[in-house]
Structures are given as C-alpha cells and as structure tokens.
C-alpha cells in the first residue's frame, strides 16, 4: 500500500515537472510576448521575465522591440529633369505595438523593406538632380513620411530614413565637372581682374610719387636689375639713362680739366680760320692756307710762292738757300736730291717725310 502511494507521488511529480517544463517561458528584456490561445489573441502582452503558458493551448510569439537598421537596395530612376540616377538608402524603425506587428501584417520586416523601395523610387521621380545632390534633408523627411504612413497600422514606427549614395552616369559626371570647372574659372578671372584693378590704382599712386623725384625711378630700375640678376640664368640688357649722361656732361664742363675740352675744339677753330683765308680753299690738320690757294700738308708752313715745303722745314723765298744749306728750287724745277717741287696749286703726291730740326742762322 505504501509502495503504491509512493509510486503515485513520484509519477505526479514527474508529470508536474514535465508540465512546468512545457509551460515555462522566458521573455528577454528587449522583447515582448504575444499569446495566442487557441488562435485568439490575448489582450495581455507578456512583459520581460519568466512567464507561463498552457502547453498545447497557448502559443507565445516574441517580438523584438529594438531599433532595426535595414538597408534599402539601390533603385534606378529618372529624375524630374530627365536624368538617370541610381539611389540607395538606409531605414531605421522599431516596433511600438507588438500585437499589431503580429496580427496586422505577416512579416513586418519584409513589408517595411518593400514600402521603403517603392517610396524611394517615387521620391526620385518627384525630385530634381540638384535636390538629390544638395537638398537631401528635405528628401529624407519626405521619404520618412511616405514610409511611416502605412507602417503606423502595422505597429511599426519609422525612426529615420537617410539617402546613402546617388550614382550618376559617367557622361553626366563629366558634364558636371566641366560646369564646375567653368564656374571656378569665371570666379578666378573676376578675382584676377579685381586684383589688377587694385594693383593699377596702387601703381598709379606710386608713379605719381616717383614723377616728383626722378632719382626714385632710377633706384627702382636698379632694384629690378638686382632682382633679375639674382637668378644668374639670363642675359640682362641694361638701358643707360639719358639723365645720367647729362649729369656727367655737366660735371665734365664744371671740372678743373676744362681746357682739355677747349683743345678738343681747336681743330674746328683752325678750320674756320683756314676757310676765311682765300675763297675755295680748305685747310688740313689746322694748317694755314697758302696765298695761292694750294693746300699745306701735315702742319707745314707754306712758302710765299704757294709751293709746299718738306715736313718740318721752314720754307724760304724762291731760289734762296735754306738754313741747312739746301737751296729750295724754283717752282716746277727738280731739286738736286731728286725731289720734285710741284707747280703752284698742285698737291704733292709724295708721302710725307720725317720732320727735320729747325736751326737759326
């Protein structure tokens, strides 16, 4: 009798343990439990922790309440300005009503994914290319509203939607690059022109200041020469200022060595004296023009009869002995030493002889 009672207690305990094992459930902190009893939804949502269900009668569905990050596949579309683009996005959502997420939709994840793709294609067709590239915040808000409207009935709340990337065709990329380059070049030219205007104003002021002091312009020229000559890789052509030549000329005229300049002007005076002698005759090398209109050679003093004397010799009258014992022959007659005296008015074709010393008698 006692043995049968002991066996019954052990069997009941085993059955109870099996029941507990079949009925016991654990709901995690980030989950909520939805119980369907005989296919009907129970109003009570099981909180996190240990809970019990009726084995074979109740069915517990656990719903994740965490924020889900779901990438939206890239969608090809044509913008409002007829540009083909490829856009992908990412969506953040979470379940706020576990019962609706279980009862109202078969698979809320798949439903949200499909709705996001459809909304993304729709927002591409309603937007311009410039909006997709520069005004993404507005597009993100519009895309979020489009997805969140049907998702509210599924017990899902759309937390955030972001457009990740906008892919353009290569031809469009090159066109946009050329447009951006042209715009930057335009701005660079405007800035350069503005800089030239400001520089021209400053240069005009500097030129007006330098015009009052001519030496400042020369100093600026020398500074430019020094800057160019520092490289030592080019040939420098230096213009010589006329003002410096005038300064040197005035300094030479006012210096103590001024008689040298007067001596340099002496040949001109001699030429004038020679021209004043007889009309139609010319003087050479500062010599005195003879009376008969013949030319003298190399500084020799002409004779009275108009014949030219040897270099350095003092001429005498016709037929008179010279100081050195030589007799000057008559005009047109050969000399004793083989020399020939030309006729009056005829230049001597012979080369000039060495001058002889002059002696007094």
Q: What's the arrangement of strands in the largest beta sheet?
A: 3-2-5
Order of helices and strands: HEEEEEEEHHHHEHHHHH
Low-confidence stretches: 258-338, 356-361
Give the overall shape, derived from the CA principal axes: rod-shaped
What is the end-to-end distance? 200 Å
Q: Could you describe the largest sheet, including whether it forms a barrel?
A: 3 strands, antiparallel
What's the assembly state of these chains? single chain
**Total number of strands:** 8
Tell me the Rg in angstroms.
Answer: 63 Å
Please state roughly what percent of the residues sit in beta strands, choosing from under 5%, 5-15%, 15-25%, 25-35%, 35-45% or over 45%.
15-25%
Q: Whole-number average pLDDT?
A: 74
Helix and strand composition category: alpha+beta
Query: How many helical elements?
Result: 10
Please provide a written account of the structure.
It is a single chain. This protein is α+β, with helices and mostly antiparallel strands and 361 residues long. Helix content is 43%, strand content 18%. The chain contains ten helices and eight strands. It has helices at residues 2-23, 98-103, 108-125, 129-134, 136-151, 170-212, 214-229, 242-253, 259-264, 266-277; strands at 24-27, 31-37, 40-46, 49-52, 58-64, 68-78, 84-95, 156-167. A three-stranded antiparallel β-sheet has the order 3-2-5. A hairpin with a 2-residue loop joins strand 2 (31-37) and strand 3 (40-46). It is rod-shaped. The termini are far apart. Residues 258-338 and 356-361 have low confidence and may be disordered.
């Amino acid at each position: 009798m006692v043995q049968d009672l002991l066996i019954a207690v052990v069997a009941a305990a085993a059955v109870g343990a099996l029941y507990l094992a079949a009925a016991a459930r654990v709901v995690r902190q980030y989950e909520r439990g939805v119980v369907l009893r005989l296919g009907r939804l129970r109003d009570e949502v099981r909180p996190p922790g240990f809970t019990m269900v009726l084995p074979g009668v109740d069915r517990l569905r656990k719903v994740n309440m965490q924020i889900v990050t779901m990438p939206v596949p890239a969608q090809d579309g044509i913008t409002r300005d007829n540009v083909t683009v490829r856009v992908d996005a990412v969506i953040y959502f979470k379940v706020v009503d576990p019962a609706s997420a279980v009862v109202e939709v078969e698979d809320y994840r798949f439903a949200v994914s499909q709705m996001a793709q459809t909304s993304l294609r729709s927002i591409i067709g309603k937007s311009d290319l410039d909006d997709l590239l520069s005004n993404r915040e507005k597009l993100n808000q519009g895309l979020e509203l489009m997805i969140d409207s049907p998702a509210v009935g599924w017990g899902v709340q759309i937390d955030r939607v972001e457009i990740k990337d906008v892919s353009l065709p290569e031809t469009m990329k090159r066109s946009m690059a050329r447009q951006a380059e042209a715009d930057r070049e335009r701005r660079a030219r405007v800035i350069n022109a503005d800089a030239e205007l400001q520089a021209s104003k400053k240069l005009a002021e500097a030129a007006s200041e330098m015009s009052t002091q001519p030496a400042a312009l020369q100093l600026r020229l020398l500074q430019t020469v020094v800057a160019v000559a520092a490289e030592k890789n080019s040939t420098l052509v230096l213009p010589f200022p006329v003002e410096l030549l005038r300064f040197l000329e005035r300094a030479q005229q006012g210096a103590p060595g001024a008689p040298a300049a007067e001596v340099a002007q002496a040949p001109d005076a001699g030429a004038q004296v020679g021209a004043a002698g007889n009309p139609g005759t010319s003087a050479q090398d500062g010599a005195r023009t003879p009376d008969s209109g013949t030319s003298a050679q190399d500084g020799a003093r002409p004779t009275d009869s108009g014949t030219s004397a040897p270099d350095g010799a003092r001429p005498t009258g016709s037929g008179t002995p010279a100081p050195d014992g030589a007799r000057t022959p008559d005009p047109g007659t050969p000399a004793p030493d083989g020399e020939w005296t030309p006729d009056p008015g005829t230049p001597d074709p012979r080369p000039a002889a060495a001058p002889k010393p002059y002696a007094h008698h």
